[in-house]
Structures are given as structure tokens and as C-alpha cells.
Known about the structure:
It is built from 5 helices and no strands. Among the domains are: 1-46; 103-158, no CATH class. It is elongated, with a radius of gyration of 36 Å. It is mainly α and 165 residues long. Helices cover 67% and strands 0% of the residues. The N and C termini lie far apart (84 Å).
Amino acid sequence: MRLLVALSVAQALLLILFGVRLFALDARLHEFTNSTAAMQVEAAHAAKAPRVSAAIPQGGLSVDEIRQVIREELAASGERQPQPSYQASVSAPPVQSNPPPSADTEMLAKQLGQDLDYLVSKGSISEAEMSEFQQRMARLPPEQRAQMRRKLTKAISSGDVEGRL
């Protein structure tokens, strides 16, 4: 009777050992299958990728060499930047660099300044309010827009207004 119990225990241990080995073998087979599939996908992508005709030197390329390659590629593809026309009309008046602010832009700048003061007193700005403020600010001339953006950035940076640009 003791012999049968000992044989049953030995048989159970061997079955457990066999199950563990089978599980490990299944995991390795699964790993191998996935790696083979990944290699096949990589090979398919590599076959579709364009081949580079020039080898890159060991040390890499310098900035000047990269610029030269870009120039060559642009010239080869026919993509050239439009050449500026130097034929200026003699009768054309010179363009003012800073046109005088109109009454509308002065009023808009004043309103935006008041809105910014209100936001500072309120202490926060929602994303919708920020979006609307930036859209209205975009209608200002570049110099006034930059000045208003500095004021807004300063208010947010100093913690007077909680919000994100």
C-alpha cells in the first residue's frame, strides 16, 4: 500500500514537471512565432522603402554637407523658390512700415486692455476666453499685438491670471 502511495506521488510530481515544461515550450514557440512575424513585417517594409544610393560615412555628415545635399535634391526635383522681381515701378509710392493706427484699432486695443484688467481682477481665464482674447488680439497691428501679448504673458507668469496661452 505504501508503495502505491509513493508511486502515485511520484507520478503526480512528474505530471506537474511535464506541465511546467510544456508551458515553457509553448511560451517559447509563441515568442518565436511573434518574432518571425515581426521579421516578415520588417522585411516587407524594407522592400517598399526607397533605397539610398550614397553611403553615409562613419563620422556622419557635416552641416555644410547636409545643406549641399538638400540643395542638390531641391534642384533635382525642380522645386525652386520664386525669384524676387526687381522691377519696381517708379511711380509707386513707398510703402509705410508702420501705418498710423486707425480709430478702430485704437478702440480694440483699449478694449483688450480693459479686458485684461478685468481678467486680472477675476484672477483666471478659461480656454474659451483665452481663445476669444487671442482672436481679437490678432486683429491688432503687429506692434500693438506684441505689446498686448507681453502684458498677457506677464500677467500669467506673475500669477495675476491663472490660465494657459
